[in-house]
Amino acid sequence: MWRIVGQTVQQQISDRPLWVSTAGGGVAWLHVRLDSRPKYYGYKIYSLSDRV
Description:
By secondary structure, this protein is of the alpha+beta class.
């Protein structure tokens, strides 16, 4: 799974930010999300694009 996530991230690399997040609370599987914005970040500092 992580190999596919890494390959997909490499394909998406550009001048625009790319946010990678994971979630798995309450379910028996792990969700991986790749997005152009930090939609589901719980830790505010991680969602600030000027900190990246």
